[in-house]
Amino acid sequence: MDFAFGPEDERFRTRARDWLDEHVAAALAQLAGQPQPQPQPQPGAGHDGPPAPAPAPVPAPAPAHAHRAWERELGADGWIGLGWDRTHGTYGNRPATLTQQVVWAEEYARAGAPARLGHIGENLLAPTLLAHGDDTQRARFLPPIARGEELWCQGYSEPEAGSDLAGVRTRAVRDPGDGTYRVTGQKIWTSLAQEADWCFVLARTEDGSQRHHGLSFLLVPMDQPGRVEVRPIRQLTGDAEFNEVFFDGAVARAEHLIGGAGQGWRVAMGLLAVERGVSTLVQQIGFAQELDRIVRLALRTGAAADPVLRDRLVEQWAELKAMRWNALRTLGEASGPGAPSVAKLLWGGWHQRLGELAVRIRGAAAALGPERWTAERPYELDDAQRLFLFSRADTIYGGSDEIQRNIIAERVLNLPKESRG
């Protein structure tokens, strides 16, 4: 595959880099609750040269209103929804080729720009609506996503149906009076549910249905007091990005059912293919930055002199390069049914090994706690500790390694299906 950046891509890169240089520092200052700095001129490095130094990391947690303001700023200047399929109409996004989308992702990561609150709506729901929604649904939901005004979360996993998504028990019953659906059930590990305005929910709409039959894909508003409850889940890192969400007769309008009643499995699988395909490229850019910090840590502490650790660093670098080119290849051509599962297996294990390597390089200090403790943040972690603890979940969330191997075995290698009796 010839995946090269052409002259137009480099002109697009310049526009993206200039915009980020002008806006990122102020956004980071606002997120940190600090006075906004005056824009500073950046070194004139080209694409082949070193990137401009990234701003310092923002302390967590950052105020949600500042994150929302950043989403609206991105949307106002056309940086949300790059390259959305325009076959069905224009929804306020900027035209961009596939290579230009990659360019934007690279420059966004290099600039150290704020973590996105709107990526679930932009990168998961929007492509799903373009593929499976109707014109009315696209016109209602895509423009607010492109403007950065409405945030989304994903209602898939449940306590008894995590990686095995076909086991969902949440039910949606059609109300014969007004034609709405009443959604009842529990979802778990729901990222950003505490900030989301909407949730796309996989629910069972046919009585007596089992497994992947009788499921529907519904768009449910989160602002329903007494009918939707969000409970944060405290993670090993001390953060609470994930949540439990309880639906108690939550109302979803019939016209907000995507792809038709009983077609939820088809729609959900289409969305997961997007989640584990295109978005992995952006993820890998963040991985590269983490690896670079760990290499610098090894050089600073002298751990790079250890031949075993040095070999491990080289292995991580080589594996990340291979993952990147594999992701680019699957974007540029039709990929088989096992490609998303292969990608998930590769990056989940890679990132977990990176976390283990980080604490080994950190040495005994990796076991030490913070110098100061607060009631709001009972403990603070350094980069190596946070990476190690968070990456423990990489081989579980988004579909466990066991489930991914089953998918490859059954759908690619045509091996007998696993018994679920």
Automatic annotation (TrEMBL):
Q: Where is the Acyl-CoA dehydrogenase/oxidase C-terminal domain?
A: 262-413
Show where the Acyl-CoA dehydrogenase/oxidase N-terminal domain sits.
68-149
Q: Entry's SUPFAM superfamilies?
A: Acyl-CoA dehydrogenase C-terminal domain-like, Acyl-CoA dehydrogenase NM domain-like
Q: Which residues form the Acyl-CoA oxidase/dehydrogenase middle domain?
A: 153-248
**Keyword Metal-binding appears in the UniProt entry:** no
Q: Where is the composition biased (Pro residues)?
A: 50-62
* Family listed: Belongs to the acyl-CoA dehydrogenase family.
Q: What is this protein called?
A: Acyl-CoA dehydrogenase family protein
State the organism of origin. Answer: Streptomyces milbemycinicus
